Structures are given as C-alpha cells and as structure tokens.
Amino acid sequence: MHRLFVGIDPPFDVKDALMEAMGGIIGARWQSEDQLHLTLRFLGERSFREADDIAEALAGVRTRSVAIGIAGVGLFDRRGRPNQLWARVSPPQDATRLHRKVDRALLRIGIPGETRAFLPHITLARFSSGSGPLDDFMVRHGDLKIPTYTADEFCLYESRLTSAGAEYTIVERYPFAQESLFGPSFL
C-alpha cells in the first residue's frame, strides 16, 4: 500500500522564506523544509495497482505553467479550535485550474472527485490542544508576502508516517507544457 498525494514542490528560495517566518508558537509542530508543498489532491492509502494507474493518469494531465506566490497566512480549525497554520497561495486561479485537471484525470480511472472546497495553501504548522497563543504570530506574519514564481512541474508524492512526523518522497514528476513561438500549446 502507498499513501499518496499530488502536489507542487516550491523552489528552495520560497521554502527558505517560509522557514524564516516559522516559530514563536508554543507547542506548534512546524513543517520541515522537506515537508513544504502545495497539495493539489490527497489520495490516501492506495494499492500498488492503483498507484500505477494514478501515476499513468497524471501523466495525461496537460496544462501550462502555474503562477504561485504567497499572500498572507490563515488557520484551519476543528470544532472552533485552530489545528493548522498555512500560507495562502496567490493568485489562486492557476492552482485551482490544475487541481480540477488532476481531479478529472483521476475520475477517469474511477477515483471520485474531491468533495471539499479547494483552497490553495502551503501548511506551515499543526497544533494540538496545548498549542498557542497564535495572536502574536498572526500580527507579525498575517501579511506574509512571497513574490510570484512560475512552477514548471507537479508531482506525485508518497507519504510515510513515522514517529518523527510525515516523510514525503516524490515518486514521479510531471513537467508542464512549454509555450511555443505560436502561443500556448494548449489551454
């Protein structure tokens, strides 16, 4: 069995800027540099055969490059208690377009589409009930900005849960289409 997800691996300068913003929240479980990514679709536990089918289906996703920047931070909560801190991807349109294409490719091989609303983000930290306070971090980094860059690929990741946290390995890379002299090769 493989625990899989589809995402975009940011370049080192983006990861470094995110790492510099991290810290200052008691009890937060901060992501490591290797864990920073933009999730396009979580797939969960999959058999070896399903993993092969997924990898093949993703190879058929055709799209142009994706513009990604960071504009602010936010919180997800569970039952009114913050459980995750994230950096907002902006502009969201390109990542959302790619998310939809990935969903359609997976639907063709029998994997149902995502039912939750897609919010492009990069997770920075996770919290337990004893974590906090968050107010100072939100004041200092609420307007976090990282200039837009152009991603040139998306990836299929495998996630292994260990006692030290999740370890992510890129299983396959899928380059985006290159524009020709005659304009985009497809839209």
Automatic annotation (TrEMBL):
Function: Hydrolyzes RNA 2',3'-cyclic phosphodiester to an RNA 2'-phosphomonoester.
Residue ranges of the motif HXTX 1: 37-40
HAMAP family the record matches: RNA_CPDase
Catalytic site: H37, H121
Listed NCBIfam families: 2_5_ligase
Record-annotated Phosphoesterase HXTX domain positions: 10-86, 92-165
Short sequence motif HXTX 2: positions: 121-124
Catalyses which reaction(s): a 3'-end 2',3'-cyclophospho-ribonucleotide-RNA + H2O = a 3'-end 2'-phospho-ribonucleotide-RNA + H(+)
UniProt xrefs under Pfam families: LigT_PEase
Lineage: Bacteria, Pseudomonadati, Pseudomonadota, Alphaproteobacteria, Sphingomonadales
Family: Belongs to the 2H phosphoesterase superfamily. ThpR family.
Protein's recorded name: RNA 2',3'-cyclic phosphodiesterase
Presence of keyword Translocase: no
EC number: 3.1.4.58
Domain of life of the native organism: Bacteria
